[in-house]
From TrEMBL, chain A:
<protein>
    <submittedName>
        <fullName>Pyruvate flavodoxin/ferredoxin oxidoreductase</fullName>
    </submittedName>
</protein>
<dbReference type="InterPro" id="IPR033412">
    <property type="entry name" value="PFOR_II"/>
</dbReference>
<dbReference type="InterPro" id="IPR009014">
    <property type="entry name" value="Transketo_C/PFOR_II"/>
</dbReference>
<keyword id="KW-0560">Oxidoreductase</keyword>
<feature type="domain" description="Pyruvate flavodoxin/ferredoxin oxidoreductase pyrimidine binding">
    <location>
        <begin position="15"/>
        <end position="238"/>
    </location>
</feature>
<dbReference type="GO" id="GO:0006979">
    <property type="term" value="P:response to oxidative stress"/>
</dbReference>
<dbReference type="Pfam" id="PF17147">
    <property type="entry name" value="PFOR_II"/>
</dbReference>
<keyword id="KW-0670">Pyruvate</keyword>
<feature type="domain" description="Pyruvate:ferredoxin oxidoreductase core">
    <location>
        <begin position="271"/>
        <end position="364"/>
    </location>
</feature>
Automatic annotation (TrEMBL), chain B:
<dbReference type="GO" id="GO:0016625">
    <property type="term" value="F:oxidoreductase activity, acting on the aldehyde or oxo group of donors, iron-sulfur protein as acceptor"/>
</dbReference>
<feature type="domain" description="Pyruvate/ketoisovalerate oxidoreductase catalytic">
    <location>
        <begin position="276"/>
        <end position="414"/>
    </location>
</feature>
<dbReference type="InterPro" id="IPR029061">
    <property type="entry name" value="THDP-binding"/>
</dbReference>
<dbReference type="InterPro" id="IPR051457">
    <property type="entry name" value="2-oxoacid:Fd_oxidoreductase"/>
</dbReference>
<feature type="domain" description="Thiamine pyrophosphate enzyme TPP-binding">
    <location>
        <begin position="56"/>
        <end position="191"/>
    </location>
</feature>
<protein>
    <submittedName>
        <fullName>2-oxoglutarate synthase</fullName>
    </submittedName>
</protein>
<dbReference type="Pfam" id="PF02775">
    <property type="entry name" value="TPP_enzyme_C"/>
</dbReference>
<dbReference type="GO" id="GO:0030976">
    <property type="term" value="F:thiamine pyrophosphate binding"/>
</dbReference>
<dbReference type="InterPro" id="IPR011766">
    <property type="entry name" value="TPP_enzyme_TPP-bd"/>
</dbReference>
Length: 374, 434
């Protein structure tokens, strides 16, 4: 066994190549730029294509075209770029275009602090597109997670035909660390299901609620539209067809959540408090938990790596073992609203910072003790 | 060849709409070129031109306003043999201006038909980037304040190698469409016509009027000699290989042992151009080759050769959970800029903390163990301080032998810098053992 010294952005690149990504387009932005440069080194030798878009809007647009032509596509940016992706994210949602979007978050709002981390885009990724339909958001805690979750992201994008976010941050993307790549989980690669035999209706779903795919430019003409459409791909204003369509788009992403609820639950017997966290903050929380336990203080930890759809079953099960929850996140309180909603009426406390540095283990230790004495 | 129009969706436009002429001219051109529905991808924009994709039986991609060229580029790069025709209006030219300019510069083999009817027909006749100043449109006086954009001059200036301007009533319209589709590069056709539903109500336009307007603006007939050059996809292909990924999961085997139990966090505080990050990397890679767990975070300004440059390197005999340094075990103060950037943290130093401090770099008060180093006296220049400090740090911390750093340098430092790096490591070590 030996270590590879790599940062989260390099691990994303490797995960994407492993998953079969052969198209990437992006616009330079700190702290995501090294994904663009890494993909430019990786893909062309493999027959893949990398474009540097004239802006973020075009970057995601190139990806949507390439994905509809049958290639696995990815783009990467940070918060300001996600803003510009918004209209095309809703297009990918409504028109079922597989796409992986890496958001290497930086402290915001707006241009914020380009070289400082935060998890301030968590609800933005879920809701920052018109129509409010669900997307998948996966959150790595380290470089190894960046590899594995990028592979999962491609698999889910292919399986569900929807955009999938990898919610990284500056603290993960641009921090180099030792990774034992032999030991890193490498999920089997999933490809989108293709239509076989019979006339092709581009949005006629299978039993899982996902339409089998045929590529544009292939032997069978394919219709794709950003407008509200029926199974045949033609515009519709029929309320029955429209309601069925949006309900299917919701259900196909949310119903199978138990099959892609990624998390680490470190439960301790007699623990009264469950810390719930994600992203790089999970690593501070692990250190905090070790310290608390060393002091004889029982505490449990739930690290969520699937943020959306909300893995409600996991949260309920973990919450059932404690008296209260403490949600810790690198923002001023976003995911805590999901947690509180799911575990209600169990009391849910919150601690968060968005000051450009990581939350420290001692701060979490202090908050656990404070929550238990309140 | 049979028509490529969609038998299940016959074309429906407002009576007298110029788009319908363009639609049939495009169908005729595709037929002339012996193309079948599966050979063609029509990418349409938002607005009345966005009706085109439905009326053809080809592959059809209808996306968001102004973005048609971006989808088309992705499709064409992934499917180089497909005939990709983009249809947009003057509205799409305005909102998608950056994409239009980029497409002209890129020269991918796409055909762009701009159905230019001088207004936003679908939303009620507001002014667009091509509305004449004297026209009466649904945007009050606003169009009188801005001159219209000459699409052909704009795309030619941006590098489009094939540019056509025609009236929709021109007898050679479908011929020009066919030439544009056949052209092996980015081809733009600016088709002028009237919008009877909106624009023409207040601005009557006979076919003759449209012909005269085009005549006045200037006919463009195809190849733009000074812009002709290799097509983007073909040029890109010469950079594309066909290999399979070569995975190296093995990483770097441990070659030697480090003397470390627990964590050891070092903060290098220097200035840009002093190889601070490289020194941090050498320190980190030495730890990797000792089988330790390592994290490295860098901090620097956007300016090259100016401003602070910081590296935080954390070594640990155990897996690293929290990748930050709460109490530095060592601070290496090499330049004033770096010291100023580390605003906090000095107070957290303990008597066990090592502070390697260049004599000419003042640091705030702290409780650490200060080791003053006179780099200048030792003949070590500013750019070499960081690397030399590794020799000092290795000696004083006792974590690595100098030979371990030297061996790592042989694998991780560019050949041109190896000899000086090794000399500096030894010089540093000597400074640490007076």
């Amino acid at each position: 066994m030996g270590f590879t010294f790599m940062d989260g952005n390099e691990a994303v690149v490797q995960g994407a190549v492993y998953a079969g990504c052969r198209f990437f387009a992006g616009y330079p932005i700190t702290p995501a730029t090294t994904i663009l440069s890494g993909m430019l080194q990786a893909l062309p030798p493999l027959g893949g294509i990398v474009l540097q878009g004239e802006d973020e809007i075009s970057s995601i647009g190139y990806c949507l075209g390439a994905s509809m032509a049958g290639l696995k596509a990815m783009t990467a940016t940070s918060g300001p770029g996600i803003s510009l992706y918004s209209e095309n994210i809703s297009f990918a949602v409504g028109s079922e275009i597989p796409l992986v979007i890496v958001n290497v978050m930086r402290q915001g709002p707006s241009t914020g602090a380009a070289t400082r981390g935060a998890d301030g885009d968590v609800q933005f990724m879920r809701w920052g597109h018109s129509g409010g339909l669900p997307v998948v958001v996966l959150a790595p805690t380290c470089a190894a997670d960046c590899f594995t979750l990028t592979v999962h992201a491609f698999n889910l994008a292919e399986r569900l035909r929807c955009p999938v976010f990898v919610a990284s941050s500056k603290e993960i993307g641009m921090t180099r660390e030792t990774v034992d790549l032999e030991a890193v989980e490498k999920p089997p690669v999933v490809d989108r299901k293709t239509h076989e035999g019979g006339p092709y209706l581009p949005f006629a779903a299978d039993a899982q609620g996902v339409p089998p795919f045929l590529p544009m430019g292939g032997p069978v003409p394919v219709r794709q539209t950003s407008s509200m459409h029926g199974p045949d791909g033609y515009i519709t204003t029929n309320p029955v067809v429209m309601q069925a369509m949006v309900e299917r788009l919701k259900a196909k992403v949310e119903s199978p959540i138990d099959s892609f609820s990624f998390y680490e639950w470190d439960a301790q017997e007699a623990a009264r408090t469950l810390i719930v966290t994600y992203g790089v903050t999970a690593r501070s929380a692990r250190a905090a938990v070790s310290r608390l336990r060393a002091q004889g203080h029982a505490v449990s930890l739930l690290v969520l790596k699937t943020l959306f759809p909300v893995p409600e079953k996991v949260l309920r099960e973990a919450a059932a073992t404690v008296e209260r929850l403490l949600v810790v996140e690198a923002n001023l309180g976003q995911y805590v609203h999901e947690v509180a909603r799911v575990v209600c009426p169990t009391p849910t406390h919150f601690f968060g910072l968005m000051c450009g540095r990581m939350i420290r283990p001692e701060e979490i230790v202090r908050e656990v003790i404070r929550a238990e004495s309140s | 060849m049979p028509s490529l129009l969609n038998p299940s969706r016959p074309p429906v436009f407002c009576p007298g709409c110029s788009h319908e002429r363009s639609l049939h001219a495009l169908d005729k051109a595709l037929q002339q070129l012996l193309l079948e529905p599966q050979d063609v991808i029509i990418v349409s924009d938002i607005g009345c031109s966005g009706l085109f994709d439905v009326f053809f039986a080809t592959h059809a991609f209808h996306g968001l306003h102004g973005r048609a060229l971006t989808y088309a580029a992705g499709l064409k790069l992934a499917r180089p043999h497909a005939t990709v025709v983009v249809v947009m209006g003057d509205g799409g030219v305005g909102i998608g201006g950056a994409h239009l300019l980029a497409a002209c510069r890129r020269n991918l083999d796409l055909t762009l038909l701009i159905l230019n009817n001088f207004n936003f027909g679908m939303t009620g006749g507001q002014y667009s980037c091509t509305t004449p100043r004297e026209a009466r449109v649904g945007s009050g006086f606003l169009n009188t304040l801005e001159p219209p954009l000459d699409v052909c001059r704009t795309v030619a200036a941006a590098g489009a190698p094939f540019v056509v301007r025609r009236s929709v009533y021109s007898p050679d319209l479908s011929e020009k469409f066919a030439e544009a589709i056949t052209y092996g590069g980015f081809a733009v056709v600016d088709v002028w016509g009237g919008c009877p539903g909106r624009y023409m109500k207040a601005n009557p336009l006979t076919p003759k009027d449209v012909d005269a307007l085009v005549e006045k603006a200037g006919l463009w007939n195809g190849p733009v000699a000074e812009n002709e050059r290799p097509e983007y996809g073909a040029a890109y292909a010469s950079h594309v290989g066909a290999s399979s990924p070569a995975w190296d999961w093995k990483g770097t085997e441990a070659r030697f042992r480090a003397s470390l139990s627990g964590r050891y966090g070092t903060v290098f505080l220097g200035a840009a151009g002093e190889r601070v990050l490289s020194a941090g990397h050498l320190w980190a890679m030495t730890a990797v080759r000792a089988g330790l767990h390592v994290t490295q975070k860098n901090d620097y300004n956007i300016t090259v050769m100016r401003g602070p440059s910081l590296a935080e390197v954390l070594l640990s005999s155990e897996p690293i959970d929290y990748p930050g340094i709460e109490q530095p075990d060592a601070v290496v103060a090499l330049a004033r800029e770096g010291v100023e950037r580390m605003a906090q943290g000095w107070a957290e130093l303990t008597p066990q903390s090592l502070v390697i401090q260049a004599v000419d770099v003042p640091v705030p008060d702290h409780r650490g163990r200060a080791v003053q180093v006179d780099f200048k006296k030792a003949g070590i220049g500013r750019k070499d301080r960081a690397v030399a400090s590794l020799g000092i740090l290795a000696r004083l911390s006792g974590i690595f032998r100098i030979e371990d750093l030297v061996e790592t340098a042989a694998f991780t430092v560019p050949p041109s810098q190896r000899d000086t790096t090794v000399q500096l490591l030894h010089k540093g070590a000597d400074l640490a053992s007076p």
